[in-house]
């Protein structure tokens, strides 16, 4: 029981780490871009995590933790911001090599502003619930940055790959929020969330995850392009 969260972190990253050295993938060759990206993103989201934990928006069940903390953060939660992005960026790296036909650009041109609009409206609608309000506003800002300021060209692929990632997301986040367990590893204050769940997962986590992975990818891809230009 004490190792439950730690084991989830471990099994999330184990297969992607092993296959990072596959000669057709060579993800390890991008580590010089990945590690700064995951560190910078992790620091931003950990500040968010520490604050929301202090407010009691969510918390951690000590029955599933080894007991080692940094401040008010269990070490497992800190590792989460390395293990999950590693698995997701690795998946993006792999699928990016094989997906030749992303969603058409004309669809992305409709989808992105529609997502931004929905996020802004949801943030306003749930302005008295701090987690959805902050999450939807963050995702709207990241999508706006990606599409209209940085004008990245890989958003169509990102939408496809993030949809694929939702399947392992349901397993990992489902376990963390209590699916199949006697109690959740990570609990949420029902007064601070919308209340709609997928299995045991608050719906906000889907959008939080999108923002987390997109920020990781923005920094990662930028550093990769800088390294390529310097060579």
Automatic annotation (TrEMBL):
One of its GO terms (biological process) is carotenoid biosynthetic process. It comes from the Bacteria. It is a multi-pass membrane protein. Residues 3-95, 128-223 form the Lycopene cyclase domain. GO terms for cellular component: membrane. The keyword Transmembrane applies. The chain crosses the membrane at residues 6-22, 34-58, 78-98, 110-127, 133-150, 159-176, 196-219. The keyword Plastid does not apply. Keywords: Carotenoid biosynthesis, Isomerase, Membrane, Transmembrane, Transmembrane helix. Pfam families: Lycopene_cyc. Its main location: membrane. Pathway: Carotenoid biosynthesis. It is found in: Membrane. This is Lycopene cyclase domain protein.
């Amino acid at each position: 029981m004490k190792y439950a969260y730690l084991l989830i972190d471990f099994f999330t990253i184990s297969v992607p780490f092993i296959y990072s050295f596959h000669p057709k993938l060579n993800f390890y060759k991008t580590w010089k871009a990945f590690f700064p990206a995951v560190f910078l993103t992790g620091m931003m989201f950990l500040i968010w995590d520490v604050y929301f934990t202090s407010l009691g928006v969510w918390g951690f069940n000590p029955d599933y933790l080894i007991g080692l903390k940094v401040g008010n953060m269990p070490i497992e939660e800190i590792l989460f911001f390395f293990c999950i992005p590693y698995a997701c960026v690795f998946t993006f790296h792999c699928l990016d090599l094989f997906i030749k036909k992303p969603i058409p650009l004309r669809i992305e041109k409709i989808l992105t502003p529609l997502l931004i609009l929905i996020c802004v409206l949801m943030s306003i609608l749930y302005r008295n619930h701090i987690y959805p309000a902050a999450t939807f506003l963050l995702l709207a800002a990241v999508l706006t940055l990606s599409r209209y300021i940085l004008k990245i060209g890989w958003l169509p692929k990102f939408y496809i790959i993030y949809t694929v990632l939702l399947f392992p997301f349901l397993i990992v986040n489902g376990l963390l929020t209590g699916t199949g367990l006697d109690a959740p590893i990570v609990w949420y204050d029902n007064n601070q969330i919308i209340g709609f769940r997928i299995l045991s997962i608050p719906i906000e986590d889907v959008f939080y995850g999108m923002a987390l992975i997109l920020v990781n990818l923005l920094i990662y891809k930028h550093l990769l392009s800088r390294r390529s230009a310097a060579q």
